[in-house]
């Protein structure tokens, strides 16, 4: 479920970026007054503003919703949060042969011979 929302979130983000880059800025109207730009639009002179702005608003709402769901999924973890919880939940393993000498360590770690201090 988390992966599905993540893929949808990325797809909405890419589509939102593409639509914002397709739209004309506020300064584009000044150039249209001198005859440039009005005939080369895809949706006509005024049709692109309402269509692209509505689709952008819908994608922005979808982006916010998927962001909220992803934030909710990120907080729903069952991992212990403190060191005390991790130590209490860890299983206790005891060795079969309990030797009481000072050089005894774990069985898989080789012992380092001690050299006299000069």
The share of residues in extended strands comes to: under 5%
Number of helices in the DSSP assignment:
4
Number of strands: 0
Mean pLDDT: 75
Query: What is the overall shape?
Result: elongated
Taking pLDDT < 50 over at least 5 consecutive residues as the criterion, the unreliable ranges are none
The Cα radius of gyration reads 32 Å
Percent of residues in helical segments?
40-55%
Element-by-element helix/strand order: HHHH
Largest sheet: none
Distance between the termini: 65 Å
Structural class: mainly alpha
Overall description:
The chain is mainly α and 118 residues long. It has a domain at 1-23 and 47-80. It is built from four helices and no strands. The chain has helices at residues 2-22, 28-32, 47-75, 83-89. Helix 1 packs antiparallel against helix 3. The longest helix is centred in the middle third of the chain and has 29 residues, at 47-75. The protein is elongated.
Quick structural gist:
This protein is an all-alpha fold.
Topology summary:
Elements: H1 2-22, H2 28-32, H3 47-75, H4 83-89
Helix pairs in contact: 1-3
List keywords for this structure.
4 helices; 53% helix; 118 residues; mainly alpha
């Amino acid at each position: 479920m988390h992966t599905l929302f993540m893929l949808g979130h990325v797809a909405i983000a890419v589509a939102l970026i593409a639509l914002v880059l397709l739209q004309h800025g506020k300064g584009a109207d000044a150039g249209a007054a001198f005859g440039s730009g009005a005939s080369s639009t895809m949706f006509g002179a005024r049709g692109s503003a309402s269509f692209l702005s509505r689709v952008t608003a819908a994608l922005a709402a979808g982006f916010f919703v998927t962001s909220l769901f992803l934030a909710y999924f990120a907080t729903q973890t069952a991992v212990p949060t403190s060191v005390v919880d991790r130590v209490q939940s860890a299983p206790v393993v005891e060795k079969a042969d309990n030797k009481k000498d000072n050089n005894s360590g774990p069985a898989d770690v080789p012992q380092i011979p001690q050299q006299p201090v000069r």
